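Hello Y.,

Per our agreement to keep a running log of every chain we model this quarter, I'm adding this entry. I've kept the format consistent with earlier entries: sequence first, then predicted structure.
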Amino acid sequence: MALPLAPLAVVAAKYGAVAIAGYALMRQIQPGRLDQRTEDALDEVEDGLSSHRPRDRDQVNGTARFRRVIRLGVNGPGFEIDATALGRLKMRRI
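Predicted structure for the entry above:
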């Protein structure tokens, strides 16, 4: 019985294209750095969403934090998710 290569070639081409695109994207990303002041600021953000508009500036500041512990089963292994975001939107008339 002959092995149909046409469907396998389509799948291989699709996954190969995704792999090449991922490799090209990884080559373009510059290595980051770790700034302890930024880490401390992210740790101080409260849970939930908040925004603030200072009166002395034309900007809006926003923060968001999502922190949860997820367990697989009652006494199973677990992991903690801590996602924090800081944002600033500056607006000025020109």
